[in-house]
Structures are given as C-alpha cells and as structure tokens.
C-alpha cells in the first residue's frame, strides 16, 4: 500500500480519527514562538480548518526561534506570513489568517461558537484572560499553554469540568512608589522604570498634563512623600512643557535641546532635590552631572560611539543610523558613552517628531513642523531609538544616584531591554515540545467530546502537563485536573448570548426582561453600574446609547438567589445578529434554572482546615482524651525550663546550641500526648 501524508496519523488515530480532524474547526490565537511550532504541528497532524489570529508584526529578534519567518518578512504580519509559509505542509488544509486583536468587538461570543476548539499560544496575560472568558461564555473547549525558558505547561479547560485560567489568581506586575522612582532611586530597576514610564512620556508622549492620571496626586493621598518633596516634583514636571515644545520646534537644533534636557534632568533637578536636607539624613546624597565635565573627564572612544557636534544640522538627520552597529548590546558603556548615546537618541527622536512620525516608528502622513508636534512616540523594546534613549537615561540616572562608582556604570543595553520590555526567556525546543503536547491534548479532548455525544465530556483520562527539566527521569510531569474554583468570578457565572440586530434599537430593559424576566437584578457593564432595583433610569435607554456594543458583557446579579443562597451572576454576551432576523434573541431560551450556592462563610465551615474545624478538633482532642493532657503540659514545661537554663548559663550562641541538646527529652512528653492508646 503506498504511503501518503496521512499514513502515520491513520495508524495512530484510525481512518475515522483522521477524517474527524480534517473536519475540525480550530481557532489558534498567537503566531509567535509557540504559535509557529503549533501551526506546523496542527497541519502535520491533519487538522483541516485553522483560523490563525495575531496582532503582532515580525521583528528581527524573532528570527532565531520563530522558524516560519525570514529576514525579508520583518515588519510583516505574523499571522499572514506564518499562514503563507506553513500552507505547503498540508495543501488540503484551509488556513484563514487574521491580522487583528482578539479583543476587538468583531470577535464576539457568536464568533467563538463556530469553532470546535481553541488553542492558546499567547504571552499576554490580559489577552489570555479575555480568551478564557470568551471560551467560558461560548462553551468552547480551550487548551491553554505557556513557556518560560526550559519550563512549560499545557492545561485543558472545559467549563464546569475543570478550573479555568482565572480560577487561580495570577501575580500582578510589580509597581514602585512614585516618589522612589522620581527622587530617591536605590536600584537599577528604579532608574529603568523612571526612564521608560516617566521621562519618555514627559518628553515624547502625552506628558503629565496630557490626560494621564496624576501619579503625584495619588502619591500625596497615600502619604508616600512629604509636602516639600511633592511640591518639588510638581515643579519639575511643569518645567518639561518648554522642553516638549523645543523638541517639536524645527527652529531649534536638536542637539541643543538634548543638552537642555540633560542639564535640567541631571543637574538642575538633582540640585533642587539636594536642597531638601531632611530627605538625605538616612539616604545617600545624589550627585549632579555636568555635560562638559563628563565629556572632559571620560572622553568616549571614537570607535565606540561617534560624537558629532553637527548632529541634526543636516537634512534628514545626520548620524541617525551611523555608529549604531558598533554599540554592542552586551557591553556596558562608560558615563561619557552613555551621555553620547543619550544625545544621539534624543536627536533621532526629535527628528522623528518633526517629521510627523508617531509611535512605534511608523511614518505618518504629516509633513513635520507644528503638525508633527502633536505626534507621540512611546517605548517599544524593538524600537532602536527608544531603547537607546531609555538605556542611556537610566544609566545616567544611576550615576546621579550613586548606584555605581565604577567607570563602567549601569546596565547593558540588553539588560535594559529585558527589564523595560518584560522579556520572558524563550527557547525553541521548549516551544516545540509544548506545541506537540497541545495537539495531543486537543486530539484527546475532541475524542472525549465526540464520545459524549452532546452530553457531559469525560475528562477522566486527561491531565495537566508540566515540563520539568530539573527532573531528568521525568521531564514531563502530569497532574490531575482540578475542578472549578467555587469562588471564581469567570467560570462560576451563568453565561447566555444575546443576539442583537441593532444595539440602537434594543433597550437595556428589554434585554434584562428577555434574560431573567421580572426577577430583581442589578446590571453592570465591566465595573460600571447600569441599573439596580432602586434605580431604573437607564432601562428605557438603548444599548448603543449606554455605550454597550458587540463583544461586551452585561453582568446581571440575581438578588433572588434563594433563602440563604449567594447571589448568582448571569453574564450576557452581546453578539451580532443578521439583519433579516428579529431585533433580539436570547440563547439559551428559556434560561436554565439558576444554581443555588451556599454563601462563602457557610462553605468555610465545611471546608477542611478552616478555623472552625481546627478549634473544634482541638476541643474534642482534650475533651475525649483527658489522659493525654498531662503529657502535653509536662512537655511544654520541660522545654521552657531547658531554654531558660541555657540562656542563663551561656554567653555565646554556640554554647546555647550545646545546652539545648537535652531538648529532645521534651519531645518524649509531646509524643506521648498524641499517641493513640
């Protein structure tokens, strides 16, 4: 029998299994490190209908591990390029690439319901939570995955059968006090955060008065700094307005503006902080930097970073790309070299602003001048100019704070990129292993789903898989699936879909009555209150008038959860409905009976390890076994006596340790206390 592309798959899955995969509709979210490997593996396994969605573009740093991309593809859409490159792996498969954001309104609950399974290959926490919620709402099985260096994990998620992505709280990104970042940095990461989040925004972004939350007001309310310190920091922030205008003024030489910024940030502001004597009683005093003094004391090597006095004077920004290739990412720069890099990056960013170039280095339609001054540039770890600016600014900040006394100061360009870009180490081998595990889990989940025939899926044979490189004898560690968390705010809710033809013609009251009838409910959209039993002003307003569009969720909190029951939340997903259909249709209809759940405090009484059970167990222990109490009391008294005797007789800690050698005798009495006799 001749061998075909499906010969091996047929031997493992059987002809019916291969045919099932060819009919399966898969949504794959993410076309990065895991996504490239996953697309290849799903195609070779025989999946016939794959929708690949990613909003990212290809960067040159992706080429070492994302094998579907080549240098010619840089700046192209990851989803489109990956689909075109991988299509020959399985010519009979239909790949639909989408260059977009999975959180867009077009990808609502109804859109998710068309797929048989969703495979996540994301590295973004917010996007993963969104996909998890959409899968819970649509009832679509999800295979969640992730890698970090040599570690990896694959988790199958099915609503009401396994815990979802949000059942376990995720660590929040670490933040730093505003006053520490702006006035008293004590670690390199403080300087990097200051350069990326504060200085970059003040000069090239929105600015303190441009609509951003006033962080200083929040710091003042929380009592982070004294009144004098907050007042000084406010004055420093206001002084940036003139520098922002100068960066966008074509009549000003960019290098002169760079010198003004350096003088203000590293000399004038530091001297102003030194004037607050109380701040430096227990801290190291910062050291102001002078432009001329730094260059005179530590002149940069001409082969390392070329320094030209005519930067920005010529047409098109002379020096914009020259010399960048000789700045090694792994080499620490001297103080003077950081100053030169700071000036060079500032000049390049100023020329981009004047040329109408916006965030991310994409050339805009403006012609510069004052029109280009309205454009903004935000930090991007793959943007050479912004990375150079943050690297140099952070290292110079470290120099003023006295964090490093050596000639070579601060962090290398690569280290700054890791900290500022929140880079998680990625290894191609780990990505390939995880991609294979995702496909295996998907095949098993689809087989279990088919066997259920529309009933409850049997998850008995499935496991969570973890890659554990520190255990060579068991590199793949399976663990049992965990049931849903009873307090999860995502998978424990009841989900329904409201198919709406026109959000401008369906009112909030019609939607609520269509879902829960006349039950008393409180309606929320995200954290925004829309109505409650005592406030019904919005019930006659349309969803569009309230700003509720397709893809949004309205939370209906049922306040008639039953006697002693906990309030039940019904999540209503707003989905697009064809033009020829009625204005509103609720799925499922009628609403299934809402579950009765015990209140949290009542459940805690029954949970093992709760304070009620612990105290009750201790009480029963001494009540039912009074003969053990003398042993317990004798052991405690003996231990106290030996400790007191050792401390009185000994002077050094070593002699205390020797004196305590008789303490095991007390354990005899404690052991006797807990023996079953």
Structure description:
This protein is an alpha/beta fold. It folds into four domains: 7-171 and 426-480, 3-Layer(aba) Sandwich (Rossmann fold); 178-420, Arc Repressor Mutant, subunit A (Orthogonal Bundle); 494-601, Ubiquitin-like 2 activating enzyme e1b. Chain:  B, domain 3 (Structural Genomics Hypothetical 15.5 Kd Protein In mrcA-pckA Intergenic Region, Chain A, Roll); 611-674. It is built from 22 helices and 14 strands. The strands form two sheets. The chain has an eight-stranded mixed sheet, with helices on both faces. Strands 11-10-12-13-9-14 form a six-stranded mixed sheet, sandwiched between helices. Helix 2 (33-45) packs across helix 16 and helix 20 runs antiparallel to helix 22 (664-674). The longest helix is centred in the middle third of the chain and has 25 residues, at 428-452. Keywords: ATP-binding, Membrane, Metal-binding, Nucleotide-binding, Transmembrane, Transmembrane helix, Ubl conjugation pathway, Zinc. It comes from Cylindrobasidium torrendii FP15055 ss-10. This is THIF-type NAD/FAD binding fold domain-containing protein. Pathway: Protein modification; protein sumoylation. Belongs to the ubiquitin-activating E1 family.
């Amino acid at each position: 029998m001749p061998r075909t592309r499906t010969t091996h798959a047929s031997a493992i899955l059987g002809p019916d299994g291969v045919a099932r995969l060819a009919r399966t509709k898969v949504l794959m979210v993410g076309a990065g490190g895991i996504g490239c490997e996953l697309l290849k593996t799903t195609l070779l396994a025989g999946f016939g209908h794959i929708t690949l969605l990613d909003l990212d573009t290809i960067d040159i740093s992706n080429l070492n591990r994302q094998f579907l991309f080549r240098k010619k593809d840089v700046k192209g859409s990851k989803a489109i390029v990956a689909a075109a490159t991988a299509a020959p792996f399985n010519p009979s498969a239909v790949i639909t690439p989408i260059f977009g954001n999975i959180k867009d309104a077009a990808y609502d609950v109804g859109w998710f319901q068309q797929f048989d399974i969703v495979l996540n290959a994301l590295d973004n926490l917010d996007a993963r939570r969104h996909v998890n919620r959409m899968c819970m709402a649509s009832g679509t099985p999800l295979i969640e995955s992730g890698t970090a260096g040599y570690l990896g994990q694959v988790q199958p998620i099915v609503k009401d059968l396994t815990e979802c992505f949000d059942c376990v709280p995720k660590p929040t990104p670490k933040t730093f006090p505003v006053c520490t970042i702006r006035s008293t940095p004590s670690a390199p990461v403080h300087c990097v955060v200051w350069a990326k989040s504060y200085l970059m925004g003040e000069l090239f972004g929105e600015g303190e008065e441009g609509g951003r939350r006033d962080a200083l007001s929040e710091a003042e309310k929380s009592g982070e700094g004294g009144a004098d310190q907050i007042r000084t920091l406010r004055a420093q922030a206001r002084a940036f307005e003139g520098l922002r205008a100068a960066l966008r003024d074509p009549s000003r030489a960019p290098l002169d503006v760079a010198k003004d910024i350096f003088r203000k940030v590293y000399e004038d502001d530091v001297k102003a902080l030194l004037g607050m004597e109380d701040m430096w009683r227990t801290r190291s005093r910062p050291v102001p930097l002078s432009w001329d003094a730094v260059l005179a004391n530590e002149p940069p090597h001409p082969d390392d970073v070329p320094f030209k006095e005519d930067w920005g004077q010529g047409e098109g920004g002379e020096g914009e790309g020259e010399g960048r290739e000789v700045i090694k990412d792994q080499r620490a720069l001297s103080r003077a070299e950081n100053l030169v890099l700071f000036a060079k990056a500032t000049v390049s960013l100023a020329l981009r602003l004047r040329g109408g170039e916006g965030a991310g280095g994409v050339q805009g339609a403006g012609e510069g001048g004052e029109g280009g001054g309205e454009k903004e540039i935000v930090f991007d770890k793959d943007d050479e100019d912004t990375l150079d600016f943050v690297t140099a600014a952070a290292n110079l900040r470290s120099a003023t704070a006295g964090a490093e006394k050596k000639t070579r100061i601060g962090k290398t360009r690569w280290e700054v990129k890791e900290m500022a870009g929140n880079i998680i180490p990625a290894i191609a081998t780990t990505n390939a292993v995880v991609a294979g595990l995702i496909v295996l889990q998907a095949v098993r989940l689809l087989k279990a789903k088919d066997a259920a025939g529309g009933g409850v899926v049997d998850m008995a044979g499935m496991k969570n898989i973890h890659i554990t490189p520190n255990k060579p004898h068991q590199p793949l560690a399976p663990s049992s699936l965990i049931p849903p968390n009873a307090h999860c705010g995502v998978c424990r809710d009841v989900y329904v879909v409201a198919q709406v033809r026109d959000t401008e013609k369906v009112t909030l009251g019609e939607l609520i009555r269509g879902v829960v009838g006349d039950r008393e409910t409180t309606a929320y959209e995200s954290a925004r209150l829309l109505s409650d039993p005592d406030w019904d002003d919005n019930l006659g307003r349309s969803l569009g008038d309230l700003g509720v569009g397709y893809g949004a969720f309205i939370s209906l909190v049922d306040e008639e959860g039953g006697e002693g029951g906990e309030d039940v939340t019904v999540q209503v997903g707003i989905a697009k409905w064809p033009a020829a259909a009625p204005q509103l249709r609720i799925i499922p209809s009628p609403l299934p009976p809402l579950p009765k759940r015990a209140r949290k405090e009542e459940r805690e009484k029954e949970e093992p390890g709760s304070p009620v059970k612990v105290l009750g167990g201790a009480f029963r222990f001494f009540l039912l076994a009074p003969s053990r109490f003398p042993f317990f009391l004798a052991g405690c008294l003996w231990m106290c006596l030996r400790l007191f005797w050792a401390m009185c007789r000994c002077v050094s800690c070593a002699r205390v340790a020797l004196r305590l050698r008789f303490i095991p005798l007390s354990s005899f009495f404690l052991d006797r206390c807990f023996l079953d006799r």
